[in-house]
C-alpha cells in the first residue's frame, strides 16, 4: 500500500482506493471484513484523508457494497476489538458536519440494521456500544437520537432486544467453535435467544448494565408515550425486551431493575400490557422467568408487579395464560426442583384472585406432552409434603368428579400414581391412593390402580 502511494499521483491513488470490485466492494470493505488487523484499516482511512477532498472522502466512507453495508457496518461486525470502530468514528467526526455524521450512524443495511444494532451483537466489549451511542448523542438532536434508538431491523428487533442477548454471543461462539459473527447470526436466526446452549450458560452476565443505560438514554430523549411503546416493541417472533432479558440475563437483578426503572415513566395501562404481552409461542414474562431464571425470586417479584398494575380479573387471566403447547406458569415451576416453594406461593396467589372454578381449571390444565402439574411435581419435586399440598388444593376447589379425573389423567409416562411410585416416598403414594379411593367409583379406582400395575397393593386391599 505504501509503495502504491509513492508511485502514484494523489488523484491516481485516491481512485485506486475508491475502486469497487466484486460485489461492489472497495478496499475498505474488503479489509474491514476479511482482515483482523484494525491498525491497517485505520491507516487506509488516514491515506484517504491525505489524498482526497472532504467531499470525496465522505463519498468513499459512505459507499456501500451489494448488501447495503458501508465500512462502518462491516467494522462494527468484523472488527470485534471495539478500538478500530471507535477510531474510525473519531476520524470521520473531524471532517463532516454533525448532521451528516448523524446520518452516517443511522444508515441501515439490507437487514434494516444500523451500526448500533451490529455493535450490540458483535462487539466483544460492551463499552463500545455505549461509546457509540454517546457519539450519536453529541451529533444528533434529542428527537433524532430517540428515533435512532427506536430503529428496528427487518425482523422487528431494536437495539434493546439485541443488547439483551448480546452477552451470550461469545459463549455460543466458544462452545460451538464458531466465530463471534457466526454465533450472533445463529442467535438472531433462532429467535434472538432460543439457542440450546443458553440453557447451560453462566448466570454471571455483565451486559445488564449496558441494557439499562440504553433504556435511560431512551427515556431522556423520548416522550413518555414513545418510551413506553419502545419498550413494548416486539420482534417478528413476538418477543419484547422483557422476554429476551428473562431468558438471557440470568442474574435476575437486571430484569428487576429494568421494570422498576421503566414503570416510573409508563402509564398503568402500558405496564399492564407490557407484562401481559405474549410471544408467538404464547409465553408471557412469567413463563420466561419460570423457565429460565435461576430462582423463583424474580418470578414472584413480577407477580407482585402484576397485582399492582392489573385488575384482579386481568391478573387472574395473566396467571392462567397458556402457551401454544398448553403450558402455564405452574407447569414450568413444577418441572424445576428448585421452584417448589415458589410454586406453592404462586398457587396461593391464584387461589385468592380466581373463582373456585377457574382455580380448579388452572390446576387441572395439561400440556401436550407433560400432563398436569401433578405429573410434573411427582417427577421433579422432592420436598416432603409438596405433592400432598397440591392435591389438597385440588380437593378443596374441585368437584369429586373433576378431582378424580385429575388424579386419573394420563401422560406418556403414566398416571400420577405410577410417577409417584417411581419418584416419591411410600407415604405420599399411599396418601394419593387414599384420596383416589374417596373420590372415585369403585370401578374407576381399581382401574386406576391397575394402570400402574401395583398387584401387591391390589391384593392387600
From TrEMBL:
SUPFAM superfamilies: Ankyrin repeat. This is Ankyrin repeat-containing domain.
Amino acid at each position: 500500500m505504501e509503495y502504491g502511494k509513492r508511485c502514484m499521483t494523489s488523484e491516481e491513488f485516491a481512485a485506486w482506493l475508491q475502486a469497487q470490485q466484486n460485489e461492489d466492494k472497495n478496499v475498505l470493505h474488503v479489509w474491514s471484513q476479511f482482515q483482523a488487523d484494525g491498525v491497517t484499516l485505520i491507516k487506509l482511512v488516514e491515506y484517504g484523508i491525505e489524498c482526497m477532498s472532504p467531499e470525496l472522502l465522505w463519498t468513499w466512507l459512505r459507499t456501500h457494497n451489494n448488501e447495503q453495508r458501508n465500512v462502518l457496518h462491516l467494522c462494527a461486525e468484523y472488527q470485534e476489538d471495539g478500538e478500530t470502530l471507535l477510531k474510525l468514528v473519531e476520524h470521520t467526526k473531524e471532517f463532516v458536519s454533525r448532521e451528516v455524521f448523524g446520518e452516517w450512524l443511522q444508515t441501515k443495511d439490507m437487514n434494516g440494521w444500523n451500526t448500533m444494532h451490529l455493535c450490540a451483537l458483535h462487539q466483544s466489549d460492551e463499552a463500545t456500544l455505549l461509546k457509540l451511542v454517546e457519539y450519536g448523542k453529541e451529533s444528533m438532536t434529542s428527537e433524532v437520537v430517540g428515533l435512532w434508538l427506536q430503529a428496528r431491523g427487518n425482523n422487528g428487533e431494536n437495539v434493546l432486544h439485541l443488547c439483551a442477548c448480546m452477552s451470550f454471543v461469545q459463549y455460543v461462539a466458544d462452545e460451538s467453535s464458531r466465530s463471534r459473527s457466526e454465533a450472533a447470526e445463529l442467535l438472531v436466526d433462532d429467535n434472538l435467544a432460543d439457542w440450546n446452549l443458553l440453557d447451560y450458560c453462566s448466570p454471571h452476565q455483565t451486559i445488564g448494565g449496558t441494557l439499562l443505560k440504553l433504556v435511560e438514554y431512551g427515556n431522556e430523549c423520548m416522550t413518555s408515550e414513545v418510551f413506553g411503546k419502545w419498550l413494548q416493541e416486539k420482534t417478528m417472533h413476538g418477543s419484547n425486551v422483557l422476554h429476551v432479558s428473562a431468558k438471557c440475563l440470568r442474574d435476575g437483578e437486571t430484569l428487576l431493575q429494568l421494570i422498576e426503572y421503566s414503570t416510573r415513566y409508563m402509564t398503568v395501562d402500558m405496564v399492564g400490557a407490557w407484562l401481559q404481552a405474549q410471544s408467538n409461542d404464547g409465553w408471557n414474562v412469567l413463563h420466561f422467568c419460570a423457565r429460565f431464571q435461576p430462582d423463583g425470586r424474580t418470578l414472584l417479584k413480577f407477580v407482585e408487579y402484576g397485582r399492582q398494575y392489573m385488575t384482579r380479573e386481568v391478573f387472574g387471566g395473566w396467571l392462567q395464560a397458556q402457551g401454544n403447547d398448553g403450558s402455564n406458569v405452574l407447569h414450568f415451576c413444577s418441572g424445576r426442583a428448585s421452584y417448589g416453594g415458589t410454586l406453592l406461593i404462586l398457587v396461593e396467589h391464584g387461589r385468592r384472585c380466581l373463582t373456585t372454578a377457574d382455580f380448579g381449571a388452572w390446576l387441572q390444565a395439561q400440556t401436550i406432552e407433560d400432563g398436569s402439574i401433578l405429573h410434573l411435581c411427582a417427577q421433579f419435586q422432592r420436598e416432603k409434603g409438596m405433592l400432598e399440598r397440591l392435591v389438597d388444593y385440588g380437593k378443596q376447589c374441585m368437584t369429586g368428579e373433576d378431582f378424580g379425573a385429575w388424579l386419573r389423567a394420563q401422560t406418556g409416562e403414566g398416571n400420577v400414581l405410577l410417577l409417584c411410585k417411581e419418584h416419591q416416598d411410600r407415604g405420599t403414594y399411599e396418601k394419593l391412593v387414599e384420596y383416589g379411593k374417596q373420590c372415585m367409583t369403585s370401578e374407576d379406582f381399581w382401574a386406576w390402580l391397575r394402570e400402574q400395575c401395583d398387584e401387591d397393593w391390589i391384593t392387600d386391599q
